[in-house]
Inverse folding.
């Protein structure tokens, strides 16, 4: 069914191919499609383009739905997905209110076939039986004559014979007969575009395996699903004239009208700071460079560094695969094997996919705000007189229009994203911070969550929130509490300065404080702080000379969250055990 009278005025769609996790650039495209639909009271549709059987997977489709749901880019039409919200409620995304059929292209083959048949009957498309050798020879000839190879139907093509072979069931690709006229279309961002017919081949619309190509399925579905605006990356710009040619040739079998030409907007490519395209390969590149730096040449070299730590996902690789990967820039390691490797060689893999950012502890709000600026800006000044950059999705919806979408590549600035994230974390209430952290930690830092527990972490939430660039930073900030009371190391410099100096003044302070801490009626942050304050005043030592010895005694170093919180999270027994151990160890040293 196409746009029924009840169809929304604007229908945008995001149409990922489920070949892996959602790339951050794909998320940016989805965000713009979503914002445009919201702004115009339209619908945002999600379609899974899984016609490439070899490269698509169900796990990847599911991952993409999860990534979009996590970001909060809610789709109105598309696969149904139940999102568990942080507050315990559930939101259902997707659905099929206009009955447009399945949102998975692999379920729609009958529909594509009927349109292919229609084109073939009219000789607007045709079966092609070229052998691989014949195709290679055509390519070689073009190369020799220094022209781009553009496939055209041979002058002596025998249509009747070809149709007979096709009808007898012989597998063959079907090609679209490209009209001999230039193709023009308007891009809302790039302006009017005309492509000469010399550059456009009779491209394949259905492969010999019976599956439609991307070009064909996308055109059929955008018509049947009523897409009014197609936004996608500029890497698809070369495909658009082919799609327009198909749209002009095809007739909607329900309405009997020629396909509509939707509005197009091609969005900037997202580049690294060095202008290279931001791609999943960057993760392999970072790991490969580190291996080179460490002179790692074989899988055994990696294992030797792992110090008997198990590396199940890395070990699943054959040594030969690893060595080939080391020597070949084009190769990529399986994601988890790469992560095992990265943990051994101590390299941080750059985040590329939405899921990488999620696992690294970014907040969706900060990611959305940052990616909205990749190829768009609101063109307004903030209260500080500088370009306005911090906003929420409500603001984006209110302002988003094509006239402020850029034409040239957008550079991904990690430092800026981190700054956005740090600020977003700092602005959360302590409670919200902990809720978000716990939701994240349930998947990505179970050890800290289980070892310390939410109740103990509540004691430090306010103290550490402002120091977290990402949720991942909670762990190093509380790691002092994650080791056994007799297992943390003392930093010799801090011991010297805060405990041994001045004839062991710090140690004397510890001896004086221990019984007071023991006798404290309630061992909570406020009571501990009050006790330490009183001790600092009563002894005339001042807070520094009280706090630092205690901090070194219980954490091993002179830096930790505020002291009341540090002691409270260790608990009375832990604190006293640590002070005793410090007095024993340091006195004897
Ligand atoms: N499946 C295509 C991709 O993932 C969609 C392109 C389009 O939006 O038309 O790149």
């Amino acid at each position: 069914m196409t746009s029924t009278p009840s169809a929304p005025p604007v229908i945008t769609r995001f149409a990922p191919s489920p070949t892996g996790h959602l790339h951050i650039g794909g998320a940016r495209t989805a965000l713009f499609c979503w914002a445009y639909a919201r702004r115009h009271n339209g619908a945002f549709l999600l379609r899974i383009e899984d016609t490439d059987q070899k490269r698509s997977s169900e796990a990847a489709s599911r991952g993409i739905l999860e990534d979009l749901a996590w970001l909060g880019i809610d789709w109105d039409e598309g696969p149904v997905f139940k999102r568990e919200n942080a507050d315990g409620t559930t939101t259902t995304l997707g659905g099929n209110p206009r009955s447009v059929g399945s949102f998975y292209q692999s379920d729609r083959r009958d529909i594509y076939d009927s349109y292919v048949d229609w084109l073939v009957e009219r000789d607007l498309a045709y079966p092609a039986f070229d052998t691989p050798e014949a195709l290679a020879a055509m390519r070689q000839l073009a190369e020799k004559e220094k022209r781009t190879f553009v496939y055209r139907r041979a002058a002596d093509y025998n249509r009747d014979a070809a149709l007979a072979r096709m009808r007898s069931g012989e597998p063959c690709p079907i090609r679209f007969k490209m009209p001999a006229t230039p193709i023009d279309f308007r891009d809302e961002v790039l302006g009017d575009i005309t492509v000469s017919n010399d550059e456009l081949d009779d491209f394949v619309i259905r492969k010999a395996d019976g599956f439609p190509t991307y070009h064909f399925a996308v055109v059929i579905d955008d018509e049947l699903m009523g897409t009014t605006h197609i936004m996608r990356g500029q890497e698809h710009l070369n495909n658009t004239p082919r799609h327009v040619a198909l749209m002009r040739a095809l007739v909607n079998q329900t309405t009997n009208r020629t396909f509509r030409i939707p509005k197009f907007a091609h969005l900037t490519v997202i580049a690294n700071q060095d202008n290279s395209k931001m791609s999943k390969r960057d993760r392999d590149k970072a790991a490969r460079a580190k291996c080179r730096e460490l002179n790692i040449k074989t899988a055994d070299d990696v294992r030797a560094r792992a110090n008997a730590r198990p590396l199940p996902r890395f070990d699943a690789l054959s040594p030969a695969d690893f060595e080939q990967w080391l020597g070949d820039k084009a190769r990529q390691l399986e994601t988890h094997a790469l992560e095992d490797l990265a943990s051994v060689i101590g390299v941080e893999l750059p985040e590329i996919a939405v899921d990488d950012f999620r696992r690294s502890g970014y907040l969706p709000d900060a990611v959305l705000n940052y990616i909205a600026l990749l190829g768009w800006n609101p063109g307004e000044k903030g209260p500080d007189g500088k370009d306005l950059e911090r906003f929420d999705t409500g603001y984006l919806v209110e302002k988003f229009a094509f006239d402020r979408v850029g034409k040239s590549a957008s550079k991904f600035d990690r430092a800026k994203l981190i700054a956005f994230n740090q600020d977003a974390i700092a602005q959360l209430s302590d409670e919200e911070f902990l809720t978000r952290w716990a939701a994240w930690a349930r998947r990505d830092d179970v050890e800290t969550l289980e070892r310390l527990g939410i109740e103990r972490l509540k004691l430090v939430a306010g103290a550490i929130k402002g120091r977290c660039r990402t949720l991942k930073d909670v762990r190093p900030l509380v790691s002092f509490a994650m080791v056994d009371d007799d297992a943390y190391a003392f930093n010799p410099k801090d011991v010297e300065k805060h405990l041994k100096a001045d004839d062991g003044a710090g140690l004397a302070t510890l001896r004086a404080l221990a019984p007071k801490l023991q006798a404290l009626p309630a061992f909570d942050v406020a009571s501990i702080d009050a006790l330490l304050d009183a001790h600092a005043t009563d002894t005339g030592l001042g807070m520094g000379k009280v706090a630092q010895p205690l901090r070194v005694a219980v954490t091993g170093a002179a830096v930790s969250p505020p002291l009341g919180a540090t002691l409270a999270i260790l608990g009375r027994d832990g604190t006293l055990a640590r002070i005793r151990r410090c007095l024993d160890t340091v006195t004897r040293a």
